[in-house]
Amino acid sequence: METELDRRAREILEGNDRGGYTVPNGRVYPFQWNWDSAFVALGFASFDQDRAWREIETLFQAQWADGFLPHIVFWRDDAGYFPGPAVWATGRTPPTSGITQPPVAASVIRSLWARAKDKKAFRPRLEALFPKLLAWHRWFAQVRDPLGKGLVVATHPWETGRDNSPEWDVPSRVIDTSQVGEYQRRDTTHLDQSVRPTKLEYDRYLALVQFGRGTGWDQQRIARENPFRVADVGMTMILLRANRDLLALAEELGRKQEADELRKFIARSEAGVGYLWDEQRQSYCSRDVITGQSSGFVTSASFLSFYAGVRHQTRDQKMLAQLERIAGAAKYLMPSLDPEDPGFDSIRYWRGPVWAVVNYLIATGLSDAGHTSWAHRVRRDTRALIEGAGFFESYCPITGRGTGGGDFSWTAAMWLHWARHE
Ligand code: DGY
């Protein structure tokens, strides 16, 4: 039976649907965002499978010829957001940003395919999406893995999805912001600035956009010369998992050559992921590839090693010990930053708040690795947060208060797909 929250979640998705794509939140984020759309598709799948597939199909209409998939697609202009298409100036149709985002789409398509009742009807759509997903994964391997270790090097904090995580503080210090000039932020007209990134962080975000634009969005050059180049633990673990899911789809479709190629990607990442293990911190952490320095921060992304299917007995034990410690310090898992870190800020975006989508990935990984009671705990906490506060962008891990935008699409989607279930 449909509950009040189920109905509300469905209403949010339908209300944020702009016809083939869904905005994360009508006011703060009025365009199509890459990884938001992937999660949103899972929500749609609970009541409209056709619409779920369409969300991803629309996103891939904005794919560049080299396989790159942008983080924002500006299907229509909207003055309520900054930086808009004119600032990015990628010269594409439709207009897009020039950076990418965590590649969850292949994993979502695998999940949509598994639940498709009428396989015959959806097979052509799977056949059509498969090469596009593979092209994006190849792009990561060819352009964003300069160490050849199967890691993902992010060239902008926005690419990681965890915009203002303290992981980026030190690597960002070298970014020259002297040419950024005056600009008007729109996020802080919609939301209190205490929950958003600082002015210094925004200056750096814009300086990196200017850098990319200055290269004419030459992705090869950006990957070589961008002042910010960090192997992101989140994107790396998500891509490893996505390659495994795409491999399962390749096998399903009988694409032997592509399956072999994906096996190589997976083997390379499995062998290389140790680069992100911080022995001193006893955790997986992002690492600056320019200086070779680990961030040393334990964030929610550190726990995605389980989701990636990385199995390492000692490291897994250490990550479980970190999990236990954090569970003792925060009422609700999983804070985006270790609550015992001096920079922890329970309401400021990715410096403390809990995000339902990351919880879903963490819990999926913990469950797959056999740590079911922890997986249940993460789901129970997510459920309690939504029941207590509604469908917010994120939540304070101490009080459970909603933070950021309301009526948030991916939180509604996570409710429908996962958090509400026993
Ligand atoms: C924003 O505008 O805050 C977005 O996170 C950028 O992707």
Name a few traits of the molecule.
422 residues; Glycosyltransferase; binds (2R)-2,3-dihydroxypropanoic acid; mainly alpha; 18 helices; two-stranded antiparallel sheet; three-stranded antiparallel sheet; globular; 4% strand; 9 strands
Explained architecture:
The chain is mainly α and 422 residues long. It has helices at 4-16, 34-45, 49-60, 85-88, 105-115, 119-143, 157-160, 169-172, 187-190, 199-214, 219-225, 233-252, 256-272, 305-308, 313-329, 356-368, 372-389, 409-419; strands at residues 32-33, 72-73, 153-154, 230-231, 277-278, 283-284, 287-288, 394-395, 402-403. It has one domain (4-419): Glycosyltransferase (Alpha/alpha barrel), CATH 1.50.10. It has a 3-stranded antiparallel beta sheet. Strand 8 (394-395) and strand 9 (402-403) form a beta hairpin. Helix 2 (34-45) runs parallel beside helix 5 (105-115), helix 2 crosses helix 18 (409-419) and helix 12 (233-252) runs antiparallel to helix 13 (256-272). The chain is globular. The two termini are 14 Å apart. Bound molecules: (2R)-2,3-dihydroxypropanoic acid. Residues 71, 158, 163, 187 line the site of (2R)-2,3-dihydroxypropanoic acid (DGY).
